[in-house]
Structures are given as structure tokens and as C-alpha cells.
Amino acid sequence: MSDKITEMLKKVRQIEIRTNKQVSEALAGAYHSVFKGRGMDFEEAREYAPGDEIRDIDWNVTARTGKAHVKKYREERELTMTIVVDLSASGQFGSADKSKRELAAELASTLAFSAARNNDKVGLVLFTDRVEHIIPPRKGRQHILRVIRDILFYEPQGTGTDIAGALDEVNRLLKRKSIVVLISDFLQGPDGRLPNPKDKYGDSVFKALDISNRRHDLVCFELIDPRELTLPKLGVITLEDAETGEIVALNTSSEVVRKSYDFMNSSRLKDFKRSLAGSKIDLLEAYTDKPYLTTLKKFFEKRAKR
């Protein structure tokens, strides 16, 4: 076995151990309470007992037996989770302990193992400016390990981002309502920034998000690296857009430049979040330099109450 394959398997195994522990200790039961089955199926009729709902009485069985019976239902539990991951070039960036792509793999692993504990299927769609790779939904540990491996090591052909195209393909593939988890830094478009619903490019993204949210249970994770939000004081630096190759020189010694950069990013982030909230789409922020488990737990608690 080559050193490259050995290192690959080691990394996948490390993520499995770390995320499986989180699922066991912090998220047990939370996933089930948040993501419900498609409905309730009639299971059997049993004799009425004090405290049962009168509305559940099965009058046909009651008339036939002469004793009050109530209908018993079970949740049609089995669901499909499709994890949609942005593999565009900007995902390779990481100024902290991990890159955005590694963070995406950990998030996907945590959610996939949570789904597996509830006997749900997990599928994967990897995309850049095109749909790169699809793994049909299946069950089992080996299947999830393949999902993690492909998120980490699949070599995409594209460098850009087409979120609308990826979601259109997901909607075409999924015939029944499913859980769709979109993991991306959402940096795309001509200027490599967050989509803006007021321009043509951003409008197509928000339309695709809205359609997916209506058809499925859509949850979005925005991958954020702190270095992308603020500029360090390092004098004149050149910044290259990983997706477009555009190079820009900035004088970071200037307080005006740094504050302008910070304000521009915070304003875009607020507008982006406001637009998603307007469509009632769940958006969670995941940072490369912070634990994401607390964010995930709060999301589960909020969704369970809702």
C-alpha cells in the first residue's frame, strides 16, 4: 500500500473517530427530533386505555368487537440525506488548523453518522462550476467512509462555483422530499463574493435555494475562515482569487483600507443572511478556527422547539 493511500486512510479514520464521538456524546437523539419522517403509518388497533385520545378511536373495530379500540401509528422514519459540497478552489484556503475543505469533511461526517444512527440513507454531490461527482444514497459505515474520503481527496476539474447548477441537479435526482445539506463558502460570481439577490448572478442562486427549500428540508452551512473577514497589518500585500485568478494589491498599513475591507465583508455577510432568513432557509456559520459542535447543538435545539 502506497504512502499516499496510507495517509488518506489515516485521515479518514481520524475524522470518523472524532465525529463519531461527538455524535455519541453530544448529538444523540437530537437528529431524530429535528428531522422527522415523511408521515405516520397505521400499525394496529388495540384496546382503549385511560388517557388515550378519543379522536384515535377506531369505530369500525370497536363496533365489530364490542370493545373500544384505538388506532396505533408508527412514524414512517426512513429518510434520505444528500450532502452537497462545494469543492471550488477557495475551499482549499485555511489560515487556522484546517482548510475549509477539511472542515466540510468533518461537518459532513458528523451529519452522516447522525443519519446512520437513525437508519437513514446518505448520498453525496460534489460540485464546482459543474457537478463533479455523485454518490447515490446508501447506508452503512463503509459507505460513509467513502463519502468522507471523496470530500477530502476527490480532484475536481473546475475551480469556480455554480451553486444554482448543483441544486438544480439535486432537485432533478431527488424524487421524494429529503434532507439536503449544502456546505459551501458561498464565495462565487464575477467578483468572488457572497451572492447578492439584487444582481443577476446572485438572483439565480437565491431562486435555486428557495426552490430546494420548498421541495426538501434544506440546511446551509457557510464555511468561513477568519483571515477572509479581516486584513492583517502587513504593508502592501497581493491577494489572488483562487477561483478567477484575479490579483489585487492592497496597502494593509492603511487603517482606512483595513476598516473598509472589514466593513464591506460584514455588510455582505449581513445582507446574505438576511436574504436567506427571508426565505426561511436555515444558515449555520462554521469557522475553520472554532469548534462547530456548539453551533450544531444550538441549531438542533432551535429546530426541535420550532
Question: What features would you describe in this structure?
Answer:
By secondary structure, the protein is of the alpha/beta class. The protein folds into two domains: 3-19 and 78-224 and 280-305, Rossmann fold (3-Layer(aba) Sandwich), CATH 3.40.50.410; 41-74, no CATH class. It is 43% helix and 23% strand. It is built from nine helices and ten strands. Helix 1 packs across helix 4 (100-117), helix 4 (100-117) runs antiparallel to helix 5 (141-153) and helix 6 (163-173) packs parallel to helix 7. The longest helix has 24 residues, at 3-26. 32% of the residues are buried.
Q: Could you give the topology of this structure?
A:
Elements: H1 3-26, H2 30-34, E1 39-47, H3 59-65, E2 69-76, E3 80-86, H4 100-117, E4 121-127, E5 131-138, H5 141-153, H6 163-173, E6 179-184, H7 200-215, E7 217-224, E8 236-240, E9 247-251, H8 255-278, E10 282-287, H9 293-305
Parallel strand pairs: 3-4, 3-6, 6-7, 7-10
Antiparallel strand pairs: 1-2, 4-5, 8-9
Total E-strand runs: 10
The second-level CATH architecture of the largest domain is 3-Layer(aba) Sandwich
Mean pLDDT: 82
Q: What is the CATH fold-level name of the largest domain? A: Rossmann fold
CATH class of the largest domain: Alpha Beta
Query: Looking at this structure, what is the CATH superfamily of the largest domain?
Result: von Willebrand factor, type A domain
Task: Specify the structural class.
Answer: alpha/beta
H/I helix tally:
9
Which sequence of SSEs, written as H and E, runs from N to C? Answer: HHEHEEHEEHHEHEEEHEH
> Assembly state here?
single chain
Unreliably modeled segments? none
| Biggest pleated-sheet summary | 6 strands, mixed
Overall structural domain count: 2
Proportion of strand residues: 15-25%
Rg on CA atoms, Å? 23 Å
Q: What form results from the Cα inertia axes?
A: elongated
Percentage of residues in helical conformation: 40-55%
